[in-house]
Model the fold of this input.
Amino acid sequence: MINKQEPGLTDFPNPMAADRAAFEWLERVEESRARERAALEAILLEQLKEQKRVRRGKNGFRLFLALLLSAVFWINTADQWRSGELQAISHNKKHTAVVDIRGPILAATNNSSENIIKGLGKAFEDPDTAGVVIRINSPGGSPVQSGQVYDEIIRLRQQFPKMPFFAVLEDVCASGGYYIAAAAPLVYADKATLVGSIGVIMQGFGFQETLNKLGMESRLITSGKNKAFLNPFGPVNDTEKAHAQSLLDTIHKQFVEAVRKGRGDRLKAAKTELFEGLIWTGEEAVALGLVDGLGSTQWVARELIKQEQMVNFTQKNDWINRISKEMGID
Done:
Protein backbone atom coordinates (compact mmCIF):
# COMPACT_ATOMS: atom_id res chain seq x y z
CA MET A 1 0.00 0.00 0.00
CA ILE A 2 1.46 3.32 -1.07
CA ASN A 3 1.22 6.16 1.48
CA LYS A 4 0.85 9.47 -0.37
CA GLN A 5 1.62 12.63 1.61
CA GLU A 6 1.69 16.32 0.75
CA PRO A 7 5.24 17.47 0.03
CA GLY A 8 6.81 19.21 3.04
CA LEU A 9 9.94 21.19 3.59
CA THR A 10 11.91 17.97 4.11
CA ASP A 11 10.88 16.72 0.66
CA PHE A 12 13.10 19.21 -1.09
CA PRO A 13 16.58 17.69 -1.58
CA ASN A 14 18.14 21.14 -1.88
CA PRO A 15 18.06 23.09 1.45
CA MET A 16 18.04 26.41 -0.42
CA ALA A 17 14.98 25.33 -2.39
CA ALA A 18 13.32 24.44 0.90
CA ASP A 19 14.12 27.86 2.30
CA ARG A 20 12.66 29.58 -0.76
CA ALA A 21 9.51 27.46 -0.56
CA ALA A 22 9.09 28.30 3.13
CA PHE A 23 9.64 31.99 2.44
CA GLU A 24 7.10 31.98 -0.41
CA TRP A 25 4.60 30.11 1.75
CA LEU A 26 4.96 32.66 4.57
CA GLU A 27 4.56 35.49 2.04
CA ARG A 28 1.34 33.96 0.75
CA VAL A 29 0.01 33.56 4.30
CA GLU A 30 0.88 37.18 5.11
CA GLU A 31 -0.73 38.43 1.90
CA SER A 32 -3.87 36.43 2.65
CA ARG A 33 -4.04 37.90 6.16
CA ALA A 34 -3.46 41.39 4.76
CA ARG A 35 -6.32 40.95 2.31
CA GLU A 36 -8.56 39.71 5.13
CA ARG A 37 -7.63 42.72 7.28
CA ALA A 38 -8.26 45.07 4.36
CA ALA A 39 -11.66 43.48 3.69
CA LEU A 40 -12.58 43.69 7.38
CA GLU A 41 -11.49 47.33 7.55
CA ALA A 42 -13.54 48.13 4.43
CA ILE A 43 -16.62 46.49 5.97
CA LEU A 44 -16.19 48.38 9.25
CA LEU A 45 -15.59 51.65 7.40
CA GLU A 46 -18.73 51.15 5.32
CA GLN A 47 -20.72 50.43 8.49
CA LEU A 48 -19.44 53.64 10.06
CA LYS A 49 -20.40 55.58 6.93
CA GLU A 50 -23.88 54.02 6.97
CA GLN A 51 -24.35 54.93 10.63
CA LYS A 52 -23.35 58.51 9.85
CA ARG A 53 -25.83 58.60 6.95
CA VAL A 54 -28.58 57.26 9.20
CA ARG A 55 -27.78 59.85 11.88
CA ARG A 56 -27.76 62.62 9.29
CA GLY A 57 -31.09 61.33 7.93
CA LYS A 58 -32.64 61.27 11.41
CA ASN A 59 -31.34 64.74 12.20
CA GLY A 60 -32.66 66.00 8.85
CA PHE A 61 -36.06 64.45 9.50
CA ARG A 62 -36.15 65.94 12.98
CA LEU A 63 -35.27 69.35 11.59
CA PHE A 64 -37.94 69.00 8.88
CA LEU A 65 -40.53 67.94 11.47
CA ALA A 66 -39.62 70.87 13.73
CA LEU A 67 -39.91 73.32 10.84
CA LEU A 68 -43.21 71.77 9.75
CA LEU A 69 -44.68 71.98 13.26
CA SER A 70 -43.48 75.57 13.57
CA ALA A 71 -45.11 76.48 10.25
CA VAL A 72 -48.36 74.74 11.19
CA PHE A 73 -48.39 76.45 14.58
CA TRP A 74 -47.78 79.83 12.95
CA ILE A 75 -50.54 79.27 10.37
CA ASN A 76 -52.95 78.05 13.03
CA THR A 77 -52.19 80.97 15.34
CA ALA A 78 -52.52 83.48 12.52
CA ASP A 79 -55.85 81.95 11.54
CA GLN A 80 -57.03 82.17 15.14
CA TRP A 81 -56.10 85.84 15.30
CA ARG A 82 -57.93 86.49 12.06
CA SER A 83 -61.04 84.65 13.26
CA GLY A 84 -60.95 86.52 16.52
CA GLU A 85 -60.35 83.55 18.81
CA LEU A 86 -57.42 85.28 20.48
CA GLN A 87 -58.91 88.75 20.55
CA ALA A 88 -60.24 88.14 24.04
CA ILE A 89 -56.66 87.64 25.21
CA SER A 90 -55.37 90.79 23.56
CA HIS A 91 -57.66 93.13 25.45
CA ASN A 92 -60.23 93.09 28.22
CA LYS A 93 -63.28 94.18 26.28
CA LYS A 94 -66.82 92.88 26.45
CA HIS A 95 -67.84 90.95 23.35
CA THR A 96 -70.42 88.65 21.82
CA ALA A 97 -69.12 85.08 21.75
CA VAL A 98 -69.91 83.06 18.62
CA VAL A 99 -69.72 79.29 18.08
CA ASP A 100 -70.29 78.08 14.51
CA ILE A 101 -71.83 74.85 13.25
CA ARG A 102 -71.28 74.66 9.50
CA GLY A 103 -72.04 71.43 7.67
CA PRO A 104 -73.13 67.95 8.83
CA ILE A 105 -72.99 67.24 12.56
CA LEU A 106 -70.88 64.12 12.83
CA ALA A 107 -68.30 62.57 15.12
CA ALA A 108 -64.59 63.08 14.32
CA THR A 109 -65.31 66.25 12.29
CA ASN A 110 -65.17 69.97 13.02
CA ASN A 111 -68.86 69.69 13.92
CA SER A 112 -68.50 66.86 16.42
CA SER A 113 -70.23 67.26 19.76
CA GLU A 114 -66.78 67.32 21.38
CA ASN A 115 -65.69 70.39 19.41
CA ILE A 116 -69.01 72.21 19.74
CA ILE A 117 -69.23 71.58 23.48
CA LYS A 118 -65.64 72.69 23.99
CA GLY A 119 -66.28 75.92 22.09
CA LEU A 120 -69.48 76.63 24.03
CA GLY A 121 -67.73 76.00 27.34
CA LYS A 122 -64.98 78.46 26.53
CA ALA A 123 -67.51 81.03 25.32
CA PHE A 124 -69.61 80.85 28.49
CA GLU A 125 -66.59 80.83 30.82
CA ASP A 126 -64.81 83.81 29.25
CA PRO A 127 -65.14 86.68 31.76
CA ASP A 128 -65.57 89.25 28.95
CA THR A 129 -68.44 87.42 27.22
CA ALA A 130 -71.58 89.54 27.26
CA GLY A 131 -73.69 86.97 25.42
CA VAL A 132 -73.32 83.75 23.40
CA VAL A 133 -74.60 82.99 19.90
CA ILE A 134 -74.57 79.53 18.37
CA ARG A 135 -74.65 80.12 14.61
CA ILE A 136 -76.03 77.14 12.69
CA ASN A 137 -75.83 76.37 8.97
CA SER A 138 -76.35 72.61 8.85
CA PRO A 139 -78.58 70.01 7.18
CA GLY A 140 -78.38 67.88 10.34
CA GLY A 141 -76.46 64.72 11.10
CA SER A 142 -76.05 62.31 13.97
CA PRO A 143 -78.87 62.38 16.54
CA VAL A 144 -76.34 61.29 19.15
CA GLN A 145 -73.99 64.20 18.47
CA SER A 146 -76.91 66.64 18.29
CA GLY A 147 -78.45 65.31 21.49
CA GLN A 148 -75.17 65.64 23.36
CA VAL A 149 -74.87 69.30 22.31
CA TYR A 150 -78.52 69.92 23.26
CA ASP A 151 -77.95 68.50 26.75
CA GLU A 152 -74.75 70.52 27.21
CA ILE A 153 -76.52 73.76 26.25
CA ILE A 154 -79.20 73.07 28.87
CA ARG A 155 -76.48 72.44 31.46
CA LEU A 156 -74.56 75.62 30.58
CA ARG A 157 -77.75 77.71 30.71
CA GLN A 158 -78.38 76.36 34.20
CA GLN A 159 -74.77 77.01 35.25
CA PHE A 160 -74.78 80.55 33.79
CA PRO A 161 -78.42 81.64 34.21
CA LYS A 162 -77.67 85.33 33.59
CA MET A 163 -75.76 84.75 30.33
CA PRO A 164 -77.83 85.70 27.24
CA PHE A 165 -77.87 82.84 24.76
CA PHE A 166 -79.25 82.81 21.22
CA ALA A 167 -79.37 80.50 18.21
CA VAL A 168 -79.06 82.16 14.81
CA LEU A 169 -79.96 80.09 11.74
CA GLU A 170 -78.36 80.82 8.38
CA ASP A 171 -79.02 79.07 5.02
CA VAL A 172 -80.24 75.75 6.42
CA CYS A 173 -81.08 74.54 9.91
CA ALA A 174 -82.64 71.14 9.51
CA SER A 175 -82.96 67.90 11.45
CA GLY A 176 -80.06 67.64 13.93
CA GLY A 177 -79.24 71.30 13.38
CA TYR A 178 -82.69 72.31 14.62
CA TYR A 179 -82.39 69.73 17.43
CA ILE A 180 -79.53 71.87 18.77
CA ALA A 181 -81.25 75.18 18.06
CA ALA A 182 -84.28 74.12 20.12
CA ALA A 183 -82.11 74.25 23.25
CA ALA A 184 -81.73 78.02 22.91
CA PRO A 185 -84.26 80.27 24.70
CA LEU A 186 -84.48 82.49 21.60
CA VAL A 187 -84.00 81.47 17.95
CA TYR A 188 -83.56 83.87 15.02
CA ALA A 189 -83.32 83.21 11.28
CA ASP A 190 -83.38 84.90 7.91
CA LYS A 191 -86.70 85.06 6.09
CA ALA A 192 -85.34 82.61 3.48
CA THR A 193 -83.64 80.18 5.89
CA LEU A 194 -84.81 76.58 5.47
CA VAL A 195 -85.95 75.34 8.89
CA GLY A 196 -87.36 72.07 10.20
CA SER A 197 -87.06 68.48 8.95
CA ILE A 198 -87.96 67.20 12.41
CA GLY A 199 -87.73 63.50 11.68
CA VAL A 200 -85.37 60.52 11.52
CA ILE A 201 -84.24 58.60 8.46
CA MET A 202 -82.42 55.33 7.77
CA GLN A 203 -81.42 54.68 4.20
CA GLY A 204 -80.52 51.41 2.52
CA PHE A 205 -80.55 49.50 -0.77
CA GLY A 206 -81.49 46.01 -1.92
CA PHE A 207 -79.40 44.10 -4.46
CA GLN A 208 -81.07 40.68 -4.48
CA GLU A 209 -82.63 41.02 -7.94
CA THR A 210 -79.37 42.43 -9.33
CA LEU A 211 -77.49 39.37 -8.04
CA ASN A 212 -80.09 37.06 -9.57
CA LYS A 213 -79.75 38.70 -12.98
CA LEU A 214 -75.97 38.38 -12.79
CA GLY A 215 -76.19 34.75 -11.79
CA MET A 216 -74.68 35.42 -8.39
CA GLU A 217 -75.76 34.49 -4.89
CA SER A 218 -74.98 35.70 -1.38
CA ARG A 219 -73.26 33.12 0.84
CA LEU A 220 -73.52 34.95 4.12
CA ILE A 221 -72.79 32.95 7.29
CA THR A 222 -73.61 34.30 10.76
CA SER A 223 -73.56 33.01 14.34
CA GLY A 224 -76.78 34.81 15.26
CA LYS A 225 -80.04 34.88 13.35
CA ASN A 226 -80.18 38.70 13.42
CA LYS A 227 -76.48 39.38 12.84
CA ALA A 228 -77.11 40.10 9.14
CA PHE A 229 -79.65 42.78 10.09
CA LEU A 230 -81.19 44.33 6.95
CA ASN A 231 -78.79 42.46 4.68
CA PRO A 232 -78.95 44.29 1.29
CA PHE A 233 -78.20 41.05 -0.60
CA GLY A 234 -81.19 39.16 0.75
CA PRO A 235 -84.96 39.61 0.74
CA VAL A 236 -86.62 42.09 3.10
CA ASN A 237 -87.22 40.54 6.50
CA ASP A 238 -90.48 41.89 7.93
CA THR A 239 -89.36 41.32 11.52
CA GLU A 240 -86.10 43.19 10.98
CA LYS A 241 -87.92 45.99 9.16
CA ALA A 242 -90.36 46.34 12.07
CA HIS A 243 -87.46 46.49 14.53
CA ALA A 244 -85.73 49.19 12.48
CA GLN A 245 -88.95 51.18 12.37
CA SER A 246 -89.20 50.87 16.15
CA LEU A 247 -85.69 52.27 16.52
CA LEU A 248 -86.50 55.23 14.30
CA ASP A 249 -89.77 55.90 16.13
CA THR A 250 -87.95 55.95 19.47
CA ILE A 251 -85.29 58.38 18.25
CA HIS A 252 -88.00 60.51 16.61
CA LYS A 253 -89.86 60.63 19.93
CA GLN A 254 -86.69 61.83 21.67
CA PHE A 255 -86.27 64.54 19.02
CA VAL A 256 -89.88 65.69 19.34
CA GLU A 257 -89.66 65.81 23.14
CA ALA A 258 -86.51 67.94 22.95
CA VAL A 259 -88.20 70.41 20.59
CA ARG A 260 -91.33 70.59 22.72
CA LYS A 261 -89.27 71.11 25.85
CA GLY A 262 -87.24 73.86 24.23
CA ARG A 263 -90.04 75.69 22.41
CA GLY A 264 -92.90 75.06 24.82
CA ASP A 265 -96.09 77.01 24.20
CA ARG A 266 -94.54 78.92 21.31
CA LEU A 267 -95.28 76.01 19.00
CA LYS A 268 -98.40 76.98 17.07
CA ALA A 269 -99.10 74.01 14.86
CA ALA A 270 -100.28 70.44 15.33
CA LYS A 271 -97.83 67.57 15.66
CA THR A 272 -98.82 66.15 12.29
CA GLU A 273 -97.60 69.34 10.64
CA LEU A 274 -94.46 70.11 12.64
CA PHE A 275 -92.97 66.71 13.37
CA GLU A 276 -93.33 64.85 10.10
CA GLY A 277 -90.09 65.90 8.40
CA LEU A 278 -91.23 68.97 6.44
CA ILE A 279 -89.15 72.14 6.10
CA TRP A 280 -90.28 75.76 5.99
CA THR A 281 -88.84 79.19 5.26
CA GLY A 282 -87.75 81.43 8.09
CA GLU A 283 -90.92 83.50 7.76
CA GLU A 284 -93.10 80.41 7.93
CA ALA A 285 -91.06 79.07 10.85
CA VAL A 286 -91.82 82.24 12.82
CA ALA A 287 -95.55 81.74 12.22
CA LEU A 288 -95.27 78.09 13.29
CA GLY A 289 -93.37 78.93 16.48
CA LEU A 290 -90.16 77.20 15.47
CA VAL A 291 -88.34 80.55 15.29
CA ASP A 292 -88.81 83.66 17.47
CA GLY A 293 -87.97 86.30 14.89
CA LEU A 294 -85.94 87.37 11.88
CA GLY A 295 -82.38 88.57 12.42
CA SER A 296 -78.72 87.88 11.71
CA THR A 297 -75.83 87.25 14.07
CA GLN A 298 -74.71 90.86 13.69
CA TRP A 299 -78.24 92.08 14.49
CA VAL A 300 -78.45 89.90 17.61
CA ALA A 301 -75.04 91.10 18.80
CA ARG A 302 -75.89 94.75 18.20
CA GLU A 303 -79.56 94.94 19.19
CA LEU A 304 -80.02 92.22 21.81
CA ILE A 305 -76.64 91.57 23.43
CA LYS A 306 -75.55 95.21 22.90
CA GLN A 307 -71.98 94.16 22.03
CA GLU A 308 -71.11 94.45 18.33
CA GLN A 309 -67.56 93.18 18.90
CA MET A 310 -67.68 89.44 18.19
CA VAL A 311 -65.15 86.79 19.20
CA ASN A 312 -65.30 83.37 17.56
CA PHE A 313 -64.82 80.40 19.92
CA THR A 314 -65.39 77.70 17.30
CA GLN A 315 -63.11 74.69 17.80
CA LYS A 316 -61.65 72.93 14.76
CA ASN A 317 -59.74 69.74 14.10
CA ASP A 318 -56.53 71.52 13.07
CA TRP A 319 -53.03 70.05 13.12
CA ILE A 320 -52.20 71.42 16.55
CA ASN A 321 -55.30 69.91 18.14
CA ARG A 322 -54.70 66.55 16.44
CA ILE A 323 -51.10 66.37 17.60
CA SER A 324 -52.11 67.46 21.10
CA LYS A 325 -54.71 64.69 21.27
CA GLU A 326 -52.16 62.11 20.08
CA MET A 327 -49.78 63.29 22.83
CA GLY A 328 -52.53 63.22 25.45
CA ILE A 329 -52.57 66.99 25.82
CA ASP A 330 -55.97 68.67 25.95
